Amino acid sequence: MGQTFAQKVLAKKAGLPSVAVGQIVDVEPDFCLSHDNTAAIAKTFAKFGVEKVKNPERFVIVLDHTVPASTEEYAKGHKEIREFVAKQGIKAFYDAGVGICHQVLPEMGFALPGSLVLGSDSHTTAYGALGAFSAGVGRSEMAALYATSRIWLKTPASFKIEVVGKLKEPVTSKDLVLKIIGDIGADGALYKSVEYAGEAIEAMSLSSRLVLSNMAVEMGAKNGYCAPDKKTFAFLEHRAVAEYTPIYPDAEAVYERTLGYDASKLGPQVAKPHTVDNVAPVEEVEGTKIHQALLGTCTNGRLEDLRLAARYLEGKKIAKGVRMIVLPASQEVLLEALRGGLIEIFVRAGAMVLSPGCGPCLGAHQGVLAAGEVCISTANRNFQGRMGSSEASTYLASPATVAASAVAGVITDPRKVGRGGGA
Amino acid sequence: MIEGKVWKYGDDVNTDVIFAGKYTYKPMTPAEMAEHALEDLDPTFAKGVKPGDILVAGANFGCGSSREQAATCIKASGVAAVIAVTFSRIFFRNAINEGLPVVELADGTTMIAKDDTIKIDFEKGVVIHNGKEYRFPALPKEVLAILNDGGLIPHVKKALANAKP
Ligand code: SF4
After folding, report:
1. Ligand 1 pocket list (CB less than 6 A)
2. Are A329 and A154 in contact (CB under 8 A)?
3. End of a domain among A245, A261, A277?
């Protein structure tokens, strides 16, 4: 019987010829990620009574959630992490400012086709965009991984999401994934391995695929896979830290569910407060007053996202009463945006450009919202209280919708506004 | 077998309403975390919860962030078990790792209301409510072993000690 991607990769990692859906495997991940939560993980690790991290070369640590530190407590946590990585000889340490973990791991070549990557962050699913099996785990599990390098995983059943047609500008992969989550619900793919396939996915850039895989967890999925191709291999050239072997599902693999979408029929989508699956076409919320617009995060903070947004901001001013925050996903993205003149466009439009990191995304740091305020954001979550006050609301949308809305001061269909000089 | 009073919630209870993002990078003891448990979902919970109470919810409990504090704060609040139609996978793992029993109950949760008293028989795999029994699937043995050791930390400690010659 044909095997899915998840079955094939877990069988390979477990050293078995094949695994069945539901089978529990004991595996060693290729790489493990943690971020600012490393301070807490290190404390748990200390409880095991083991001096040294087993296989320090397999751990990647990125400071991104509260950088640069805004409180003494955060600063203390960061300091403890720096001491921990020095003591443990963890070389893959990316200090404050390098970028958001889910951008840094692909850029630094740790997210490889056919590999197993686990992270103590729910959006670790992102690396599926490069053909990895990647999933989030908890802090105690990460501490146990420091000690043993091993973990149990249950082989998930798989969904196939087949997308035909071509996305119509300015509709993006963000609109597509919001539509899917809206249709199947926040638990629509619970515990499942999602495989994205079809001509629309093949036509997408790696950056666009990263959005799909990043948000797979918002439909409950364990991972979200895109078949690695020439674009993936080209991106990894000069980046990959190890040799890799891509893994593809068998043609006759068995899927629990297959969903079909036509990209050409899709318009801009918005997730309304306070759940990611509360999705509507942008027309339904047009005219909603906003106070803050956030462009960036690990979901949509890559160069193509900034470029798309800049087209709506060039030569324009952000509406009075609206604050716009631009948050490039990494230093590499920031540098490219600088070179491309994008940062100047944002600043001239009146936006604040923050240094790479998670920023306002999780409400722990900068750009938090007051009661009664409304934010439109390119991030991946809009839960009540996530970005500050529990009486604030967040709408999620694509970079085009967010930028067009920032200029208008109300939620705006990007198809209906004139774009700046880039058009 | 455990018996406790019910706190009842709906579907998609996410980790931000269980333990808000603004607290996630503040060092706190479990007892301090318990003071903020379910803060944005039910402000009466943290003050009213008694040791041994049971949390009952709908589908996809614990969705959202991987923050383990969502499980820690519930465990520290004294809750003896969480019953839900389904759990988000990371919350499920976190709960087991924290030694907080989780029960996936397909039928019956809609019958159970706040302040009802229910029993959970882990050995038989049933939840008993108003004299009716609702079955739930037993946990895989790998998972049960962690729960029986009191969580992942004692479990790994034990494994490491056994591995030493
Ligand atoms: S940008 Fe937001 S979603 Fe992404 S890793 Fe940071 S906090 Fe999480």
Report:
1. A 65, 100-102, 121, 123, 297-298, 358, 361-362, 379-380
2. no
3. A261
